[in-house]
Prior knowledge:
The protein is an alpha+beta fold and about 300 residues long. It has a single domain (about 5-300), classed as 4-Layer Sandwich (Glutamine Phosphoribosylpyrophosphate, subunit 1, domain 1), CATH 3.60.20. The protein is about 35% helix and about 25% strand. The protein is built from 8 helices and 12 strands. It has an 8-stranded mixed sheet. Strands 7-8-9-10 form a 4-stranded antiparallel sheet. The longest helix is centred in the first third of the chain and has 23 residues, at about 20-40. It is globular, with a radius of gyration of 17 Å. The two termini are about 25 Å apart. The relative contact order is 0.20.
Amino acid sequence: xxxIAIHGGAGTLSRDEMSAKQEKQYRAALDESLDAxxxxxxxxxxxxxxxxxxxxxxxxxxLFNAGRGAVLNRDGxxxxxxxxMDGRTLSAGAVSGLxxxxxxxxxxxxxxxxTPHVMLIGVxxxxxxxxxxxxxxxxxxxxxxxxxxxxxxxxxxxxxxENELQAFGTVGAVALDQKGDLAAATSTGGMTGKRWxxxxxxxxxxxxxxxxxxxxxxxxxxxxxYFIRTVVAHDIxxxxxxxxxxxxxxxxxxxxxxxxxxxxxxxxxxxxxxGGIVLEFNSEGMFRGVRTSQGRHEVAIxxx
Length: 304
């Protein structure tokens, strides 16, 4: 048994505003990401490499708030975050505040593999990237017309609704490989108009990303401040490991229980060592997909 699940963010456009053309584009992008990760697993690759491959595809697609389509901060600059974790070894890598790294998830993986650290930020992270030959691009590479328009409306004082993807286009993947190892990866551009070097949950191990072969692997998307305060990803895995409860119950306890009580919303994807998969959200929708060696293959946006 091996499997992969992905998300492209919670808080989608409402059904009334999602055109047939847009829906087709999003579904095609999710399928492309699934195919990239699943191919790695089929070839006997690791869950970590599969998760990275799936996330990289989404980072390269301007539809999502990660990599190429990242939202812009108050100064019109894209600042990118990413993290990943290996459930077998509990090794992890994270990066934050990047402005010139084409695929932040690649740099997060290099931090895990080539340094004694877990997180590198800003200028230092990009200095390390140069020593590793990581592909770098001008910040303008990330600036799409849609994200520029979102920022301009925000600066004019227009109300940007959460389901306009200004905050919730974060991408992620979780996987179980043929050896039974779990992994998780997450990447984001953060929130439109963010200031003062704001960092959300995506690069924080235990909040937006966590993986442990003894319990589960989780990647989160949503209002990062709430995911940090409730340590969503780790809490889900801890409940599975210590309370011995099903993954779906643990997800519900955290996402629709204590986090929602605080006012936070978003979603998570999670997978356990038996290949059980949960894709849950408390917003109108979440871009998501699953593919397993047992024949399950689906992508979805709303509750269908």
